[in-house]
Amino acid sequence: PVIKVALSGTGLYVLPKVPMNVAVTMDGDNAVITWDAVTQNIHDQPLIPDYYFIFNSSNPYGYFGYNGSASGLQYIHPMVGAFQPRMFYRVVAYKYYGRGSFDLAALGLEPGMTEAEVTRRLKLASE
To answer: Does the predicted model carry a pTM greater than 0.85?
Structure first.
């Protein structure tokens, strides 16, 4: 005898929470950006971001461009104090849900890219 069973399922794509307590201090001309770890549970499983992406702008209401990424809770923006009297930062947590290993270098991220372009490339990498 043969038994046929139809199975279906849905994936759950959960964005990490926003990093809290983002702080900027100056170390000479370098801006040191720090933040609290993102901690949350989804179905009793910890959701820990793989990377944090840092965006910056000289205008808090203007365009924020990609500055860099960190796997830890700190990022240093070198020499920004020598060229900008004020700088604003946004930190975005990212969790990789794709198949295989995540290769940040293969994304070709460049300083100044829009957040939308960075997000588009991250989405392509996870497909």
So the answer is: no
